[in-house]
Amino acid sequence: MRQFLDIGAGIPTSPNVHEVAQRLVPGARVAYVDNDPVVLTHSRALRASPGVIALKGDLRDPEALLADERLTGHLDFSQPVGLMLVAVLHFVRADQDPDGIVRRLLAPLAEGSHLVVSSASSAGHTPEEVARFEAAYRQASSPLVLHSPERIGGWFAGLDLLEPGVVPVFHWRAEEEIPGLSLLGGVGRLASGGGGAGRGPEA
Hints:
By secondary structure, this protein is α/β, with parallel strands linked by helices. It has a single domain (3-189), classed as Rossmann fold, CATH 3.40.50.150. Helix content is 27%, strand content 20%. It has helices at residues 17-24, 37-46, 62-67, 69-74, 98-106, 127-136, 149-154, and strands at residues 3-7, 29-34, 52-56, 82-86, 114-121, 160-161, 167-168, 182-189. Strands 1, 2, 3, 4, 5, 6, 7 and 8 form an eight-stranded mixed β-sheet that branches. It is globular.
């Protein structure tokens, strides 16, 4: 994998996606996308590196994001792309169609592309706990939505789901589990058949 699209990139941490990618594959290209101007300011300052761009874009408007000439000029969508939706889809409400958003983002991707997702989940929580978590975020600029494991798993429909599947993110080489919210994650590969169109989850 030589190019990555990180949507909802957030405030830079270390190591960043491009630092890991370029350490393994010199020349790897990374596009960071976020809709928060503060995040973008930090991203452009701290992620300044050859092969890296930071763009303003909104996950909830995938068509506009994918049509951005700065993005299409930076990443070659005829070649595999690592699409990263890490800790961002739990800010998308059910009425904003998270399933359709994932499907539309996958549509232009070439065979061999990968989808990486992590999301807060209702797994392991009682309905009362889910209601309490969501109520705590209701007045925030980005309300928290605890998606069901079935919904999160559905985002990988039509992809080859890599081991260990859709599991708590702490199963992915983490040393310890952080108590609190259930966070599920998974990685899927777009198999032969090409182009994500029609291969995403059902709405």
